[in-house]
Task: structure prediction
Amino acid sequence: MRNPVQDYLEHIVDQCGAAGGEVAAYIPELAAADPDRFALCLATVDGQVYEVGQAEHRFSIQSISKPFTYALGLHDQGLETVARKVDVEPSGDAFNEISLAPGSGRPKNPMINAGAITATSLVGGEDGQERFGRALDWFGAFAGRELEVDEAVYGSELATAHRNRAIAHMLREFEILEDDPEEVLARYVRQCSIAVDTRDLALMAATMANGGRQPRTGRQLLEAHLVEHVLSVMTTCGMYDAAGDWVSAVGMPAKSGVSGGIIGVLPGQVGVAVFSPRLDAHGNSARGVALFERMSRDMEMHLMHVSRGSRSALRSSYSLQTARSRTRWQGADEEVLDRVAGRARVYELHGDLLFSGAESVARTVVEDAPEVAVFDLTQVNEIAQVSRVTLLALRDRLREVGAEAVAVDPAGVFPDPDAGTELASPIFPDLASAVEWCERELIRAHCGPRPEPDPVEDHPLMRDLEASAAEAVRAAMTRRVVPDGETVLEAGGPFAGVHLIVRGRAEALGTGPDGQSVTLVTMGPGTSFGELALGTDGEQQTTIRAVEELELLVLTAEDLARLADEDPVVGVQVWRAIARDGYRVADRALRRGAIRAR
Result:
């Protein structure tokens, strides 16, 4: 079954096709790049990666290296030391502007070249080789794999780095750089030449989104307060002189590079990376900007979007094998459910359902591949539009493979756009009725060709007896009719025998925490009640009431005693059958209680 998140990403890529622009021409190796290469990757904070296009094509990281080098400088030197060398104010200038503060000579921020060269000088190490080695390892730790330098890009870029060379020497003049500016420049150009693919960048961004913890390796690379600092600078300065337009239209921390990459970070949710070499007038990937604008609208990624924040939307999930309904089905149907109940699953959701939550739910359902999926929305507050689209697409994917999705939505937080048509999904006011519906559907789908079950002969009490014992039980049973609404057994009364339902429905009532009467289980033809009192010192623990006119066959306590006295062999068979059925019913109740307590 296809994941609807993958479908969505492929859809928006098709819609954000040609966006114009030209490849970077001032570096010969970049000028030779194929302008039509493309990739989009989205990585979640738990390490799931979605890919569209040539996600494994490698290219030089260029200026996307800047926030990670800045982060390493902060990690090594601390905020105060780094702040004395480079400011965090938006410059409003192009990325290669010679932009130093009057008097102090500090670069305005670490996302422009002057600030990035300064940040490179702040990486700790005994010499230039060790410092670059640490930076390369640092980048690789964020990506989750070892990275290498594209030597051809490095040579081409260093040979044409005249403007950056001028910036480096000016920084040395103002004593912002304390080392040889040529050595620092070489390291800066070398770090810009590290080869990455779009998948690497998405995971690097996801590490920032995950508070500095790499989603796949689990390594905590950067302290959380430093992550916040870096993301703040990326938000205001990461897109150079287009930063204002970016914050207004996209509204998320980001960084671009002239090779055609852009990364974006949605804290707590995802990291996104796009690669498309055609650049706009600001030096940012034209198609990448268009895709980020579209995703920000659809996914409500904008940092100013009012929301109660992101948390795991999937509270719990479990199969009907461990959480059956309160309905007792007759023997043959119970056998079907015992075999196939695991093919239906309940997904309990809660909180605000944002994109990351919907993605997690969709991924879980795709992996589970249930025959019936029940989405319990009882504790959901709000659902983002992209989450609505994702869940509806998930329903469509389920139907494509012959499965179905139903919802428990008492507050109507997720109105079905297909309501009133044959495409509408079943909606239930509570989980109990949804689970009962699922069980009925599983029975219908898997019972196979068979005669209509006999409510008496197919009951486990009768089915498991030898012929002579079954005949003796039939002869001993008394037929009884109980009107709708009348009490059959009262809680607190003595064991009154086994009551087998031939026709109609009954409910077992208990007392809830508030002292009010609650329905514990409903029973229909082919099921029985009364026998569980044998496991509670012969005292009836629940009240049994008819909810439709009942026709019963009753094997009283006296009848059971007489059968055992007259023929001990028959008596043993009957008691074993009662014990087996009672255990099965009690086991199901315990499982249901355990899942409710989670």
Notes: Residues 594-598 have pLDDT under 50 and may be disordered. The chain is about 40% helix and 20% strand. The two ends are 29 Å apart (CA to CA). The CA atoms of residues 118 and 293 lie 31 Å apart.
